[in-house]
Write a structure and sequence with these properties.
alpha+beta, 9-stranded mixed sheet, 6 helices, 9 strands, 28% helix, 29% strand, globular, acyltransferase, GNAT family N-acetyltransferase
Length: 220
């Protein structure tokens, strides 16, 4: 089917729900993402881009984020921490004729790295993209960000190469970007792998701040 722009509506999962991000949620998002660990991997332009205050984060996010796309706040869906915001992600760069989209601008609170949050968020967003008729979804990360690059590969994405001198970091240096993609023909296997990963958690809800098993932090 021909690609169409995905609707901006809530995506409900077992462990997380993705809500269209509204300005009122930005201070709460700042409280979990304005962290040196989050910016260390290159998100937000890298360590030098870390805003000095909650207000500065809100102003920076409002000024720079791709609100022409589907920008989401990621919240815990059940359990004692239900409703707590734990990150953000975006589906954007929609090319309807070429059936291409970009899943990125993703960051999570360090407290939920290695939990159900990343695999279910990706499951929901990739499902939305492919159900909307897209044939290729791009994912990318700073070449230096080994954590995010490993997390993208664990999804089953294919590494395409390095886009050199692709983006200006906050410290004035130029970033090389590692580019990956998932095609519609690959989606059934990627979906199966994500669902298997989620099954390992049983029915336990996401708990904010409990010990985690690995690192899946940021990607853009």
């Amino acid at each position: 089917m021909a690609a169409r722009r995905p609707p901006r509506e809530m995506l409900q999962g077992r462990f997380v729900r993705l809500e269209p991000l509204v300005p009122a949620a930005l201070p709460e998002l700042a409280d979990v993402l304005r962290r040196s660990e989050v910016f260390a991997g290159g998100w937000g332009g890298g360590p030098a881009g870390l805003p000095a205050s909650r207000e500065a984060f809100v102003a920076w996010f409002t000024r720079t984020w791709p609100f022409g796309g589907n920008v989401y706040a990621i919240r815990i869906a059940s359990g004692p921490d239900e409703g707590r915001i734990v990150g953000t992600s975006t589906l954007t760069d929609f090319d309807l004729e070429a059936e291409r989209a970009h899943l990125g601008w993703t960051a999570y609170a360090p407290e939920v790295w290695g939990t159900q949050v990343n695999p279910e968020s990706k499951l929901l967003l990739l499902g939305l993209a492919f159900d909307s008729g897209f044939g290729r979804v791009k994912l990318q990360a700073d070449e230096r960000n080994t954590r995010s690059r490993e997390a993208i590969l664990r999804l089953g994405a294919t590494y395409e190469g390095i886009a050199r001198r692709d983006m200006l970091r906050a410290d004035g240096s130029w970033r090389n970007t590692a580019v990956y993609s998932i095609l519609i023909d690959e989606w059934p296997e990627v979906r199966r792998r994500l669902e298997q990963r989620l099954e390992r958690f049983g029915g336990q809800p996401v708990r904010f701040g409990l010990p985690r098993v690995g690192g899946e932090g940021t990607a853009r």
